[in-house]
Amino acid sequence: MKQEHLARLLLLVILVGLPVAVWAARAGLFAPPATAGERVIALIAAAPEGGGWQPETVRVALGERLRLRISGADVVHGFAIGQADIPPVTVEPGRVAEFVFTPPAPGRYTFYCTVWCSPNHWRMRGTLEVVGPDGVLPSPTPQPPLYQQLGLDIDAPHIAAHFPRNTPSAARGQALGLPLPGDLADPERLRRISPSAAFARLRADPAYAHLGDDQVWDLVALAWKRSTTPERLAQGQAIYTANCAACHGQSGRGDGPGGRALRRTDAMGVSQGPANFTEARTMAGGSAAIYQGKVLRGGMGTGMPYWGPILTEEQTWAVVDYLWTFLFDY
Amino acid sequence: MSARRALIILVLALAVLLVPWLAGSTAPTQHTIVVEASNFAYRPAEIRVNQGDRVVLEFTSADVVHGLSLDGYDLNLKAEPGHSARAEFVATAPGTFRFRCSVTCGPLHPFMIGQLSVAPNWPFWRAAALAVVVGVGALGYDGGRKTADGRQKMDEPPSSVFRRPSSWLRRLLRLRWPQWLLTVLLLAGFILAVLAGLLGTSVGNRNFAIVFVWIVWWGLLILVLVPFAGRLWCSVCPIPAPGEWLQRRALVTVSGKKLWTLGKRWPRRLRNIWLQNAGFLLLALFSLPLLTQPAITALVLLALLLLATGLSLVYERRVFCRYLCPVGGFVGLYATVAPLELRVRDPQVCASHTEKACYVGNASGYGCPWFVFPGSLTRNTPCGLCAECLRACPLDNVVINLRPFGADLMQERGWRLDETFKGLVMLTCAVLYSAVLLGPWGELKAAANAVMTPAWLGYALAFLALNALVVPGVFLGAVALSRWHERRTPGALRRAFVSYARVLIPLGLAAWTAFSLGLVLVNGSYALAALADPFGWGWNLLGLAHVPWTPLLTGLIPTLQALALIGGLAAAVGLAGHIAREQAGGQRAWSGALPVSLFCLGVTLVLLWLVMGP
Question: pTM here?
Answer without folding.
Answer: 0.93
